[in-house]
Amino acid sequence: MKIDYNTAGRSALSATLALALAACGGGGGSSAPIAGPPPGATPAPTPPPTNSACSTANQIDFADDVLNDWYLFPDLLDNTVNAANFDTVQSFLDARVAPARAQSRDVGFTFATSIADENALINSGASAGFGVRLSFDQDNNRLFILEAFENAPGFQAGIDRGTEILSIGTDASNLQAVSDLLADGGPQAVVNALGPSDAGVTRVLRFVQDDGTVIETSVSKSDFSLDPVSDRYGALIIEDGGRNVGYLNLRTFIVSDAADQLRSAFQLFASNNVDELILDFRYNGGGLVSVAETLGDLMGRDQIGNIFSQTVLREERSDNNTTRLFESEMNALQPEGLVLIGTRSTASASELVTNSMLSYVSPNRIALVGDDTSGKPVGQFAFDLDECDLRVRAVTFQTLNADDEGDYFTGLASVMPNTCRAVDDFTSPLGDPSEASIATALDFLAGRSCTPISGGPGQTAQSLNRRQILTPAQPNAAQYQIPGLF
Fold first, then answer.
1. Handedness of CA 72, 73, 75, 80 (dihedral sign)
2. What is the DSSP string of 181-219?
3. Rounded distance, CA 112 to CA 389, Å?
4. Distance CA 468, CA 7 (A)
5. Residues 115-121: what's their mean pLDDT?
């Protein structure tokens, strides 16, 4: 049996991060950072027996050895857990890391996923579904579109940011009102009604567009590629009071092509003499650390050779600690003003970049706008059991900035020198200067006053936005990294 320690790329802090994913580290709605042990890392854990290699018991044994050998917080593992009591790898992982989760150190960041699915996501952005991000309002039992990918079937059917989904059915004769689904079964009832994320799955959707037009149509899920930087609003120049402000909306760090798309965006910024940036990462659950490092380089024109970030493992694995220095990038800038637009779905690599830039932007010229972020200053390595298509993403490292700072487990609002409250105004297009969060970001850069996010340094901020990202109980590889993706 061959066990691979995936070195395809470290991913950033979330989840979804991410995250992220959501995909802020998965499961809890945040997305997870991605990484593999550095080349030369000691091969561990010990392979399970070759007979019945892919039995649930052997896969759980594999996951157990990963945690014992590499987990960042070994003192926060529950060693009383009996592996025989679990019938899935994920449920076992959740039980083992429960003490870390209770201390907000691992809120869904350690998870099991498919090697093939995650590699396809990283290499080409491959996914399947309607190609939309969904959020729900539990208080009022409503379901809204936060974003639609332009090359996916949802957008092509007329669904876009601000659309409200009213009813879902397998055909027109059995439509179920979203309000009833949420009231009777909660968000998972909506997830179930939408069906699996497989190409060919068809649902009849009744929805109302932003202008009030009600449409009922059949939409089939299909394969599509996640585009990290939208051609509509991914990179824009916003003119504000005679100043050119660069606006970057990066949907995810998980797709490797994001690095080249970022380079194209900064070519636009450089050609327009931009020295103030708005990083709109409001739904970005994280992804590859390598992409975060490229973005750091593009904002580090005057910092080449200085520390961008430090990767720190548990004491027994400290020989794998690394320090990443700023490297030269064509069209790099040195921002005099920098704003992160964030929400509770902003995680992992998104937070890593912002925390790293705290060391290099004047404290009175950098801010978090919107809502507090997920709080994921940790990342994962990937541990692969090839023959079982099993990848265990385990929290294995923490990322610090040049000032050795990186303890924002409650969110970036606790460490940012400036914060400004703003709603996520999904009735306005992303990239629109009049959208509430973007307008507030422009106000900060122009020196206009704002209301701080509740909380502050050393405190936990209360969430401003009542809507929540729709997250399946068992996210797929893309949903771990792209919060709200269906």
1. negative
2. HHHHHHHHHHHHHH--S-TT-EEEEEEE-TTS-EEEEEE
3. 10
4. 33
5. 96
Q: 51-87: b or e for each residue (b if 16 or more CB lie within 10 Å)?
A: eebeeeebbbbbbbbbbebbbbbeebbeeebeeeebe
CA–CA distance, 150 with 155 (Å, rounded to integer) = 6
Confidence of residue 39 (pLDDT cuts 50, 70, 90): very low
Instruction: For residue 213, give every residue at least 6 positions away whose Cβ sits within 8 Å of its Cβ, in sequence order, or none.
Output: none
485 token code pair: 């993706």
Q: Please, what is the angle between helix 289-298 and helix 258-271, to 10°?
A: 10
Rounded CA-CA distance 23/18 in Å is 4
User: In one letter, which amino acid is 18?
Assistant: A
Please tell me the predicted confidence (pLDDT) of residue 35: 53
| Dist CA 25 CA 391 (whole Å) | 14
pLDDT at 352 over 70: yes
Q: Round to whole Å and give the CA distance between 416 and 418.
A: 5
- The band of 1, judged by pLDDT with boundaries at 50, 70 and 90, is very low
pLDDT for the residue 152 = 98
Identity of the amino acid at 232: R
CA-closest candidate to residue 221, choices 167, 285, 173, 149: 149
Instruction: Calculate what percentage of the chain has a pLDDT beyond 90.
Output: 85
| Stated length of the chain | 486
Hey, what amino acid is at 414?
Answer: S
Q: Going by DSSP bridges, is the β-strand pair 468-469/132-137 parallel, antiparallel, or unpaired? A: antiparallel
Task: Examine the pLDDT at 93 and tell me if it is beyond 50.
Answer: yes
